[in-house]
């Protein structure tokens, strides 16, 4: 079995594993589980995480050119190593919904908006869970409810940083640092996408005002070539006719 | 009656309803109304809100292709569902003021600046009203005057977030979250518009240095075609003249 | 006397007036003047401010088409109405330093960087003076030294907003609001200038890989026209030579 | 010896000096050295700093056109004057790792990402060391551990600014101001790089849909010229043949 076949076949099982991970983690943190229930969620998280790591290892083993596959699938590595980010894979499924016919630019921007929004929502949600799990029972913690955690994540990802709620633990600070840089990157994505749209719209005139294409010039070169050949050809055939004269 | 006619006819009544909504809401919150006066503003808000929802439903019903109309008028849905955002419709009227002749890019940027400034002012104002209404009488609230609310909104929408004033209620936090993301989007719009302007200005040389247009190449192709035809034509007429020779 | 002559002649006196304004305002606020010295600076500020307003009114009166002049010189109006912003005019002088030969894009970006840096420095400095003047003797104020004011201005203009120092007066909050929005705009200018530079650099290949210019195609059209004319011309002169045959 | 030879030969020694500077400074601050160990690090820092200044002076002296060299190597001046920033030179070595074949735009963006990430990491690390050194023993300081310093640097460079940790000394505030502006610039670099990538991707069609190149048009002009010459030439040779008739 080759890597592509494996990837196609494991896609849906992995989506279900992602959902299991998400639900188990949400339940564990929001309900602040303890005892047996906490142990069960620990097992679910461990098993689903292991599934993703195995999937990555199998794909790497099945790939023909492992070096090239590794370099081209850095995203897959990220999904495999960080259990929280892996859920973004769900969005790949969401973006496959058939849409209207779009230009290359519009299609790219649509994908960026869908993925970007999805990544932002998933990361804010998971960061909220992780920070709440880390902070809740820490001494001097201010983030003690799920509402607090969501509010803090939004305040952090937009780099607003009121400072009313601040992580007190190292784990919370790590989540915060990640969220801030993700926020800077996401605001860059928003701005760049808008810039691409505005630049495209601003240059929109009639098709006649668009920059000439290479295709057009190739067509022209062919025409000029065709023009040159018969002319010199007919003159050559003319020359003999005139010489016998 | 078709959808376009309805839209033209209901435009001004809806602008007046928007203003009524804005004035009633401002009066209600800033004056911190109670008793009968509060009930009157509640009624005005409810009726104007209902007007917008009815307008949306009627337009959808009148549209020929409802699916296509729905996808193309997501903005109208936003205006209908969220009473506060609906006032941005006023700006549509403002941008119709006839201006100077502008290039496609300059016209787009002018519209973006006018709409963007308008959206920012309306959202900051409405967010200030909403947060003041939510916070004012809440225990432990710091946003207690209209001046506080405006200052907090500006601090939030620019993602500065001093933290001197922070919402204490869930409704206030919701308004804050909205404002932060709007702020990130607005700063993206500012940057992207500036980038479009700079890119356009930076590439400005003489017209001779601009990228060749498709129109120019089409003109050239036609010329080459015209050149090719009479030449071979005259050669054909020449051939018989030379053959009789 | 026409508007351009007036503008040339009043340029240097106004630069001196700007400097007088800046020095008087700096001295007044930093030294926390009182009594006679404060009155003297009040007079200097009032006179220099009046000079700028008079200059604007005279320029408007001298302009041929007042409507067009007004629309084209909104910057001059800003400089005339807001005394603090007027000092940015000094930068106009600074950017006239002759530099190296630059492409249109590089020249534009150089101007943006010089003006932008200048505007940022002037605004941060003036905002620091204004906020210090407003806050210093206010009850509950945290911005009480010039160092505090500069730090607060930098924290505000970059939209960092620690919240360790926060304006307590309405005037201070107004200055803060202005600084935040200026900060958003300036960060947009930085980003857009970088984007223009990167887009230009990214598309740089050999000159042969650059988009074809309109000038090139015009040269080509002229060549094709020249090619078409003599050919049909010589054929016409050939036709009579062959017909007598 | 010319400047280029000197630069090639001193490259590796300077990298080692940079590393020595970094290790000495890290050890000094993190271990909070005192007595002899502190004096030793002071000497290492002084000597390595002096090495860089000497290198700059020698390069300037060896340059043929000193004015032009000075203007073209403002970066080298920055590295020589500010000891902390000088370590960024290490990245120049890192970016020389041979990569895959990339388009001009992709190569530029790769360099920007590598350098940008490196500059960000070095600056955050050095700012953390400097602020910790300045704050640790200051009265009323909140940044007292290396973890605090790193967290504060990340909160500052992303312009989040919670305000839980704020510098209390002038030196700390100076570092903070630098970090904030670096943060604004870095987020601009991220956004601009993303914009360049999106604009390039958005305009990607087949090669035929790319803007026509100057090279193509030059090829075409040569073809048209070649077409014009033989035609008039053969007509000239035809003319004599017909005139003798």
From TrEMBL, chains A, B, C, D:
Keywords: Ion channel, Ion transport, Membrane, Transmembrane, Transmembrane helix, Transport
Localization of this protein: Membrane
Membrane-traversing stretches: 12-30, 42-62, 74-92, 112-131, 143-162, 174-199
GO cellular component: voltage-gated potassium channel complex
Record bears the keyword Cell inner membrane: no
SUPFAM superfamilies per record: Voltage-gated potassium channels
GO terms of molecular function: voltage-gated potassium channel activity
GO annotation (BP), single: action potential
Main location: membrane
Topology term for the membrane: Multi-pass membrane protein
Record domain Potassium channel: where: 121-199
Name of the protein: Voltage-gated potassium channel
Organism: Microbacterium invictum
């Amino acid at each position: 079995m080759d890597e592509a076949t494996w990837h196609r076949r494991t896609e849906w099982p992995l989506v279900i594993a992602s959902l299991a991970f998400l639900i188990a983690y949400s339940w564990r943190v929001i309900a602040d589980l303890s005892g047996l229930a906490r142990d069960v969620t620990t097992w679910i998280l461990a098993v689903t995480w292991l599934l993703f790591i195995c999937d990555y290892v199998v794909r790497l083993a099945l790939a023909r050119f492992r070096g090239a596959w590794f370099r081209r699938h850095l995203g897959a590595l990220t999904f495999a190593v960080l259990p929280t980010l892996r859920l973004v894979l769900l969005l790949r499924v969401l973006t496959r919904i058939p849409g209207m016919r779009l230009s290359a630019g519009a299609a790219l921007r649509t994908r960026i908006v869908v993925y970007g929004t999805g990544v932002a929502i998933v990361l804010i949600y998971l960061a909220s869970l992780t920070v709440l799990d880390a902070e809740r029972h820490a001494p001097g913690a201010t983030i003690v409810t799920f509402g607090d955690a969501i509010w803090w994540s939004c305040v952090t990802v937009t780099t607003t940083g009121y400072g009313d709620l601040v992580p007190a633990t190292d784990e919370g600070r790590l989540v915060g640092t990640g969220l801030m840089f993700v926020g800077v990157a996401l605001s860059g994505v928003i701005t760049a996408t808008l810039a691409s749209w505005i630049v495209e719209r601003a240059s929109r005139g009639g098709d006649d005002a668009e920059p000439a294409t290479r295709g057009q010039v190739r067509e022209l070169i062919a025409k000029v070539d065709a023009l040159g050949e018969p002319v010199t050809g007919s003159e050559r055939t003319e020359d003999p006719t005139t010489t016998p004269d």
